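Kindly review this record before class:
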Amino acid sequence: MVFYSPIIVFIVNVLRVLLLKEVMDVFLPVDDREEKPLKIGFGIYCLLTTTVYSIFGVSAPYEICNCFGIIGLTCFYQELWKKRLWVSLLLFSLDMANSLIVLFIFGNIATFQQPAIQALLMLICTTVISHISYPSETKEIAFDWKQTLLLLVIPAMSVIVLSVLMLGELPKMSAIWISGCMLMINISVFYLYNILIENYLHLRDHDIYKQQTYAYQNQLEVIMESQSRVRALRHDMKNHILALQVLVQRKEMEETNQYLESMKDFMANPQEYVKTGNDTVDSLLNYKIQKANEVLHVVETKIIIPEQLHLRSFDLNVLLGNLLDNAIDASMQTEDKKLKITIKLDKGILFLSICNSCQGIADGRSDFLETTKEDKVNHGIGLKNVRRIVEKYHGDITFLQEKGSMVTDVMMYVKEM
């Protein structure tokens, strides 16, 4: 029976590792290209922890190996190191608390049954955690230093307390109670994280709707100005007609054309850069282009879309708002200060192209563009949100840097209403 015990430990450890992976996948995004190395990493981690446990049992060498193994596994995920560190410490403290609870309750009389009970406790923890709602988009969210520190303190202190507990000689019942409390406290961190996530999403949505409100307000002012010009022209229309009749009777065609051009210029609203009939597009683009004209030298637009689209106004604000803000910011840093926007709908496919002058980015084509700003926590999230919107409409986005210009091309499947 003793000969088969390491095999039993390995089989049970596989379940524990799969549960750890399930929790990691909830909080950390993984690139498809890293999927195979990640599986290999989990396999090595499983073999290593099984070997160390079979030799030392629940001890300092095992916990050290387990800690560095979990930290190493998070390196395969695409996320800021602060969030990877938080997930690593939280999972390690949960796993360590489970190990010590089993050790203090059963002692060494069930050395090879301990992994099974520990895996059972981890299964219970995973079940509790899975009942918390974590939208897929939350994987991309990174908090600032204060929020990250708040999340890090609890698992870090738990690891210290559990380490002292493992090396100390407290009474059995006291050790069990302390380990159990550490376990419950760390599970509560997942609920704290969920609360922070919900607050972040609320603030983000509020900011988007606030921007949309400003855009609609700007569009209302544009419409009111256009109507004012229409009323002024209509008020003097009789005089204009008489003047044109005189010019036509005299066959002064050049003067007639000049007069008509003057009327057209009078009717043109300098703040109405886009007029497609789609209120959402017009309001957002007029608002952004007005801002761009204030800081850039050249702003060109070519918009050909119908009045109605199967595209949520919220999604459109996320898509155009983030891309245009990034393009305008990048153009401001150059001498040319150029921006060109092209949007068209053809056979159910929406094409969006934004070309802006830029600097500091290597030439070439890419499917993903990282922010060049120093604060990568508060910046760069917009591009991830843009990619999420593009994927929602089964589209694609590419970035092409060439000769001092950045071209962002988006293709989405959007039908006319």
